[in-house]
Amino acid sequence: MQLFLPIAEVSVNAFLLVGIGGIVGFLSGLFGVGGGFLITPLLFFIGIPPAVAVATGANQVVASSISGVLAQLRRKAVDFRMGTVLLAGGMAGSAVGVWVFARLSAIGQVDLFVQLSYVLFLGFVGAMMLQESLRSMWRARKAGGVVVRRAHVHTWVHGMPLKMKFRASGLYISVIPPLLIGAFVGFLSAVMGVGGGFIMVPAMIYLLGMPTRVVIGTSLFQIIFTTAFTTVMHAVSSQTVDLLLAMLLILGGVVGAQFGARFGLRLRADQLRVLLALMVLAVCLRVAADLVLRPDELYSAIAGRLP
Amino acid sequence: MMRRLALIAALLAPPAAAESIVAGLSDSAVAITTDFAGSEIMVFGAVKREAPLRSDAPLRVIVTVEGPATPLTLRRKDHRYGIWMNTASVDLPAVPSFYALASSAPLDQALAPYEDARLGITLPRHLQDLGLMDGLAPDQAFQSALIRIRQGESRFQVKEGAIAFTEETLFRTDIALPAALVEGNYKVRIYLTRDGRVVDEVQRAIWVRKAGLERFLHRAAQDQPLLYGLAALLIAALAGWGASALFARLRW
After folding, report:
1. CA distance A34 to A194
2. CATH number, domain containing residue B190
3. pLDDT confidence tier of residue B13, bands split at 50, 70 and 90
4. Residues of B in contact with A242 (CB under 8 A)
5. B140 domain residue, yes or no
6. pLDDT digits (tens, 9 = 90+) for A38-62
7. Does the distance separating the beta carbons of B75 and A300 come in below 8 Å?
8. Is residue B14 part of a domain?
9. ipTM above 0.85, yes or no
């Protein structure tokens, strides 16, 4: 069934859009990533103009994150206090990111910067996660399936002032590292047009030492607000949110997120991390290929809007 | 004095058009509704003549359809530091979002170069008349890239010989409008030529407008952007909560 999208001004297959929403929603519920880093390239691929894809993708991520958070909430796997601290940092970082994005737009290098950020961060995060999770899987097998995890591993994070108790995560650490991580992720999400879960999740696990169990719910909680902010900002400043497109993506996304959250219960934490790492690396390679291989068409035409 | 009067008389006199076009369109308006997936417009008509048909040179018909113009940025990638990146760009203020040309005979027979220069009928000539090629002049590659890309999207079409022209009197052709259509006023121009010289010209318009839900959403996004953005969030929140509540009830 072909549908003409009022803002994107292209005709696309409605079932294809529901399907894309469903797949991304599934992964979102499974891994606690918003799915922005998947949905935006997928929308480009089916011919949605980039500005509309970024803005509408953010709107869809709001819905799937809410659906995912509610599912996680029933498992008491959301650390609201940590989420709020991360969010405070995130808003500040996002404001800086929006400014940088505008500067890069002016000199016409946004695409390159976005692609390089994808390759760099997805590659780094993916490789690190893969290496770590494979090692812990291997260790678990060797130790007869039981991983002895010490309750407290003291790192540099524990030496900072302004300590705060994060009960749900079982942590008593300084608020400075989460604020910085939040700000960094907020910056990247504004520049790359994503929620930032794929950076947030490993940062919470490896830098803050949060248990994997609460990481997904907390990440989703924070993503809701970041992407809601992005959606409204795009709607007001460039009118690029396509409600019809968003509704189709959401329809698939919210259902997919429920299946994803359910499916995630059947997998062990280290298996989840291996899968997420492989997916992140796959997207990274795909973007890298676009940069390195000679494109079929060296020229591109981007139509502006009528004033 | 006499010469001036003669000049005025010459200007006021009706052109000696022995042959003129009577034309029609299958639709004078196209409504973009939710299920819009492209459309076909039939341009048809007849040649009205006061004198008998001349036999020296045949008549030809050329039809062009031009969509509203939008600003456009053209970029070129080059291989730098091992990756492909945009290195050159051209900003064009107004490029037609659609331009289709159909003719009843190959263009070199149907249109003389001097008439093309005067009226800007063929694609490169038309773009030049819009002042677009000034910005592109030093690099012909940008011009051919623009035409190549837009032709690939069916936004620019050149169909020589696509007009059925019967007995040098009745003509008809179908112009395919792509699904990705920009709203606005589409100009249809019909030229009648003999020996490459334009003997008559007629202009018609097709109104392309969004309708129904398309129109409502488009207007809302433009007129009430903040409310529109908040509505988008509300829908997202309700959908997210609704799915969660539904699946919790299912207890699967």
Report:
1. 8
2. 2.60.40.3880
3. very low
4. 217
5. yes
6. 787 788 778 787 777 877 888 888 8
7. yes
8. no
9. no
